[in-house]
Amino acid sequence: MSSEKVHVRSHGCMKPYNWMQVGTWILLPLLLLQFFFFASPLLPLAASIPCSIAVFFFGALAAYKGYTTCITDPADDHVICHLNRQNEKTFVDEEKAEEEVKYCFACETNVHSHSMHCKFCDKCVARFDHHCQWLNTCIGEKNYQYFFETVVSTCLLVFAHWACLTGIIVAYFIGWDNGEISGTEQRAKDWFGANQPNVVIGLNLGFLTIDLISEWLILQLLFFHLSLRKKGMTTYQFIVKDNEKKRMESRKQMDTKRRRADHMKREIEEGNIFGRMALTVGGWKGCGCIDPIRREMREEDRAAKLAASKAASRRSEMEHVKHDDSDNDTKDGITVNPIRLNGYNGDNGVHANMGKNGTRNAADTVASDASSISHQ
Predict the structure, then answer these.
(1) pLDDT tens, 218-270?
(2) How many CB atoms sit inside 10 A of residue 260's CB?
(3) At a CB cut-off of 8 Å and minimum separation 6, what does 75 contact?
(4) What phi and psi values does residue 124 have, to the nearest 5 degrees?
(5) Which residues of 135-161 are buried (b: 16+ CB within 10 A; e: fewer)?
(6) What's the pTM?
(7) What pLDDT was estimated at residue 330?
(8) Count of CB atoms within 10 A of residue 329's CB?
């Protein structure tokens, strides 16, 4: 690495900003100002005070949680240590130091195996979840909880704002059929002495539409992350798994198409009209139950799952037997090697397959599952 210090985005309040982040800075104060000037004055005093407290409390909470999410640096501890030229042993926790690491060529240092490099922030993020464009910062292990709380508090803010505007608009139109003026309409006429109730209500209707769209989007995001938390997954892991699922479905569709063409060719050569009809109709949407190709593939999948289940059962039985043998061989504080040695010479106690130096190398059969994800 060059002697010149690398500059990376350590938090979301650093430049460059993006338009979605600036939009967040504008929309949140705008909702609060709109409620203060155009919604709260139309409510009765008994409702205006508690509604105002609720809306501004959730607004302040959303702003605080969002700010905390932005200023928390989610970078991998090894990256922070590397950039600050600190001793890694004194900076990284002892428990984390024992974790498996991998080398990041962009950060030019070792990082934890669960870290991912973000191309927007130009750094590896510990347990990378995603890069939030609305906050313009990476979400990872260190700030994910703050991000989740930001989503929840923003959802509550928009819901409270929407509920107040809905009550105002419904109350405004009560009594129109009888030609009466409701209390809300009268307060709208008296609003700052402007005598423009339609303008005031029209503005509230516009923000009610914004609330409905925002609440729908935020609820989708909230339920998505609730599902991820239940599954113990990150957004990145979900995307990788979903892409793999789509690739498998694509390969399956290509295989189905190839098989259909081969079967159709054979049916044409044999002159089987009914077979051709079954292949043609079976390829239509909703006719999979009579499709010979898909029926054939389902049988193959069932056979493969059955074979895998039997193999897993055999492995489990072998491990159980091996464990029992190990327990039986351990007696009086003396542990006997459970591996059965073929060609053992009982007279001199030496194995017949030993090497020249009288030593024998045992084969390790430990399987290691390591998942490595390429840098973006």
Answers:
(1) 999 999 999 999 999 999 999 999 999 999 989 988 988 898 888 888 888 88
(2) 18
(3) 8, 10, 121, 123, 124, 125, 126, 140
(4) -85, 135
(5) bbbbbbbbbbebbbbbbbbbbbbbbbb
(6) 0.72
(7) 52
(8) 12
